[in-house]
Write a structure and sequence with these properties.
alpha+beta, Beta Polymerase, domain 2, cca-adding enzyme, domain 2, 3 domains, eight-stranded mixed beta sheet, two-stranded antiparallel sheet, 23 helices, elongated, binds adenosine-5'-triphosphate, binds magnesium ion
Length: 468
């Protein structure tokens, strides 16, 4: 509930006889969105556009989150200036996007996204600025009025505009009522058509429902299961971005459960979903849940999280099964893991493309697992210096928690990291093992000398022992 927005449930957007949409306008005194909470750079962009004679509004997640008392992730601006006109106003500006052309205004690390109002129809010049193919919007570059712009957005709560002219809120789609009701609702009266236009809206529905704790309106929830396969038409690179947004914001476990519920997870991670489907009661589901819960706790504690670890968790069950199968065929544990990692990671690229810079460390987390289970000799010393050791160790802890490896092995590594070099040497038993081998060799060469003459191996002699 938002007591600061004056309740006005009677006033819903109405179409006038000329079919021009009348918005609900909430004056500054009656809503809580304050310039104090808007990024100074976004304000600069709004003011500069206005000075140049254009309309300028804050829109989207920034307005929504400020109304709900959340800190916005970024600030999006909507204007009647064309992208070229926007570029004329700002020197620190780049135009991006083909499907959806817009301007990025740069302020050091911060980017303020400036989009021109989109129109709903064809502009009549026949040059394909707005194109639908099989109901899917593949280009959306016809400009229009703010009213039209509001109606082509995804959810009502994302179509609220903050007007820099008089600091009022402008609501064309009933978003304020939905914010007050905690309800996520697609704009328009045909939710299935809106998902078909852009199937990623299905993932956005899950994301906002989790992030805001909102319920998805029943008519928007209804088509999800049936339309989930439309995600196959989306580029794997875009699905990678969306997956990260879903999983790295502190509600990954909840998002995972909702994605599975609506059949969306199977479209993103089909092999994992296959494994989980048969084993709701077994440890695989526990493993993924624990991994995601762990990720959520790290995000909430402000600790860094990595896509490599996240995807290592999400794809582990198919990797683990293939690893086992290959070992049963007679491969060594290390070789089987290298093969399984490669196979599963390659197949996954068809759905969600994991960029190399994350894909390589993801595979290292996996390939270190069998090596962490073999700790004797100098191996432990070498492994602890591996750049991916810490992530692989965290992963091992999850496997132990899920009952997949002995807790004793995980505890051993925990202890190994806490002690000094001398104790590490004792724990790994490096010296002992070498001495025994040396003794045997000496005894073989000089049967009369006995085992007592062998000297302790020097540091470094044994480094070739590591299977680096
Ligand atoms: P956040 O930035 O917190 O993830 P957001 O709502 O601002 O949430 P953005 O991806 O930044 O999401 O998009 C800004 C706005 O653009 C949205 O609020 C929405 O109005 C519109 N929008 C974004 N993606 C779509 C889409 N696929 N279909 C229709 N409108 C969209
Ligand atoms: Mg945004």
């Amino acid at each position: 509930m938002h007591p600061l927005i004056q309740p006005d449930p009677q006033i819903q957007p109405q179409r006038s006889p000329e079919t021009e949409l009348q918005p609900r306008v909430v004056p500054r005194a009656e809503h809580p969105v304050s310039r104090a909470n808007i990024s100074p750079n976004a304000l600069k962009v709004l003011y500069r556009l206005r000075q140049a004679g254009h309309q300028a509004y804050l829109v989207g997640g920034g307005v929504r989150d400020l109304l709900l008392g959340h800190e916005p992730k970024d600030f999006d601006v909507a204007t009647d200036a064309t992208p070229e006109e926007v570029r004329g106003v700002f020197r620190n500006c780049r135009l991006i996007g083909r499907r959806f052309r817009l301007a990025h205004v740069f302020f050091g690390q911060e980017i303020v996204e400036v989009a021109t109002f989109r129109g709903t129809g064809d502009d009549g010049d026949g040059d394909d600025d707005r194109r639908l193919e099989n109901g899917r919007l593949i280009r959306d570059n016809v400009y229009g009025t703010i009213a039209e712009d509001a109606l082509r957005r995804d959810f009502t709560i994302n179509a609220l505009y903050y007007n820099i002219e008089d600091f009022s809120l402008v609501d064309y789609a009933g978003g304020l009522a939905d914010i007050e009701a905690g309800r996520l609702r697609l704009i328009g009266d045909d939710p299935a058509a809106r998902y078909r236009e852009d199937p990623v809206r299905m993932l956005r529905a899950v994301r906002f429902a989790c992030k805001l704790g909102f319920m998805i309106a029943p008519d928007c929830e209804g088509p999800l299961h049936e339309l989930a396969p439309l995600l196959r038409e989306i580029s794997p690179a875009r699905l990678f971005d969306e997956t990260l947004k879903l999983m790295h914001a502190g509600y990954a476990l909840h998002a995972f459960e909702k994605l599975r519920h609506f059949g969306l997870f199977a479209e993103l991670f089909p092999e994992t979903d296959d494994c989980l489907a048969g084993e709701e009661q077994g440890f695989p589901i526990t493993f993924v849940s624990r991994g995601l819960d762990n990720t959520d706790r790290r995000v909430l504690d402000g600790k860094p999280v990595s896509p490599a670890f996240l995807f290592a968790v999400l794809l582990w069950e198919p990797v683990r099964r293939r690893w086992q199968a290959l070992q049963e065929e007679g491969r060594s544990s290390i070789e089987a893991m290298a093969m399984a990692s490669h196979e599963v990671a390659s197949r996954q690229q068809r759905q969600v493309a994991i960029p190399k810079r994350h894909g390589l460390p993801m595979r290292e987390i996996w390939t270190l697992q069998p090596r962490l289970e073999r700790r004797q000799g100098k191996r432990a010393m070498v492994l602890i210096g591996h750049p991916r050791f810490r992530a692989a160790y965290d992963f091992l802890l999850l496997r132990a928690e899920a009952g997949e490896v002995d807790q004793e092995i995980a505890d051993w590594w925990t202890h190994f990291q806490e002690v000094d070099a001398g104790e590490r040497a004792r724990m790994s038993g490096a010296g002992k093992r070498k001495r025994r081998r040396r003794r045997r060799k000496v005894a073989a060469a000089k049967p009369d000398a006995g085992g007592n003459v062998a000297s302790a191996p020097r540091e470094g002699q044994v480094s070739g022992d590591a299977d680096a």
